[in-house]
Amino acid sequence: MLHIGQNLQLVTIMGGIYTTLLASVAGATSVSTLLEEGPPPMPVRWEDRWSATDPPCNSSNKQKALYIAYTLDPPLSASPATALAVETTWVSLSSMRAHGTNGVFAAQPFGTDGPGGYFGSQADGSTADGGLLFSVWDAKGKVHHGQAPGCPPQTDDDAILGDSNSSSPNSTWCNTLHSFPLSANCHRHCLDCGLHPGWHNTTGTQCSVPLTINEGDRFRFVLEQTKSNSTYTFDLDGVPIRYTGAEWRLTVMHYAPTKGSLIPPTNYTLGDVFFERSHGGVTRLSAFHEHIGCVDCDAFFESEQRSGLEVLRPLPRSTSAIDFNRPNAECELFNVTVNNKAHPPFALFQTGPRLK
Predict the structure, then answer these.
(1) Is the entire prediction scored with pTM above 0.90?
(2) What is the pLDDT, as a whole number, of residue 192?
(3) Which of 101, 145, 164, 316 could be stapled to 154 by a disulfide with Cβ–Cβ 3.0 to 4.6 Å?
(4) Which of 142, 191, 149 is nearest to 169 (CA)?
């Protein structure tokens, strides 16, 4: 198993988009490393997996991402949450274990009035490669010159933001509201840099905890705003830049399967992150299920259960229903069973050859 301080390499496919995440959780400290470090080469993760008679995995025949939505009254868009909780229980993983670094990411995308992102748990064929992930993306297109630290007034609306007259770290800095790491297992990172050759600008903050995930493991994720009005000072090569915003924390309670005995959960603080100029709450949250790497339609069977969303504050309420719209895809070996009569409602995801 990897430990904090070691290099953790996670490769995920987000809607067919390759994201390479290579970070030393307690490593880089210089601005040049944090802001301008280029991405490593994209590793080959699924070679030699098919027989000579099988067609290669591609965007048409692979397992597709599956999405569910939560119904709340009132919805998060009308009454944002400053604390909420969701749960994931991993039901079946044994068939996945023969497939190395391929796996499944059970994620919860969210948004606020500033930065947003996703969090969740990841199970891989290799038990050493799983873990918990909290990624917060900078909010693009919400900052203008003269309205953010390090970004001087811009008189020409068509000029390139972050030009040579700006004290900002790179050419996109003045285009975004930023997220900054507040805990040791979080770091600024060049998210999605693998998609853009030569793109070295950081675009968010990532927090991770390496963890072996087994069948029966249940995870309760609690995302909460810990400070609504806070400040963060970013040291840009000796020049302090002061930001205002809010602080958020993601905690995880890990309930391991037991045989009749009660074992207290293991608690993790997955990450503390500062959200620039975000003083409200979570305005949207959903769930998706996505295979890691290009996973052939009938490669392996996997199943996990996702609970309904609970809003803890300021207006406590629970999900009244979960919605799933079956996508039209070449690979049809998937099923999502929704139980809206349960309290709370839940959705059971199943993918792979058992569904033939």
Answers:
(1) no
(2) 59
(3) 145
(4) 149
